[in-house]
């Protein structure tokens, strides 16, 4: 991934993830996300519709748009590689720091 895209995922930019419903229709959710070790990481709670959709069909699209310049954006299409539980809220805490500047 190029540096411009990594920068977009490292700032307070809103990210959207599209997953697929059972009937094949798209479902779009605004989320917080970051880039780490070659992956775009998105945090969601188990049982949410996007979580259920990804369990059934891992194909997704992720779009991020700069809060400062809406022409500075990118969309990535791919598949979810892994679902990792965040029981200790380590990733959620990282995102809170990134987006809210709070620990």
Automatic annotation (TrEMBL):
GO terms for cellular component: cytosol. Keywords: Oxidoreductase. GO terms for molecular function: coenzyme F420 binding; oxidoreductase activity, acting on the CH-CH group of donors. It comes from the Archaea. Pfam families: PNPOx_N. Residues 1-100 form the Pyridoxamine 5'-phosphate oxidase N-terminal domain. This is PPOX class putative F420-dependent enzyme.
């Amino acid at each position: 991934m190029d540096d411009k895209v990594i920068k977009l995922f490292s700032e307070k930019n809103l990210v959207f993830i599209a997953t697929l419903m059972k009937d094949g229709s798209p479902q779009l959710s605004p989320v917080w996300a970051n880039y780490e070790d070659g992956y775009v990481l998105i945090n969601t709670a188990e049982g949410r519709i996007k979580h259920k959709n990804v369990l059934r069909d891992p194909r997704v699209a992720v779009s991020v748009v700069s809060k400062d310049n809406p022409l500075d954006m990118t969309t990535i299409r791919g598949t979810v590689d892994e679902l990792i539980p965040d029981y200790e809220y380590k990733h959620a805490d990282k995102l809170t720091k990134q987006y809210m500047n709070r620990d």
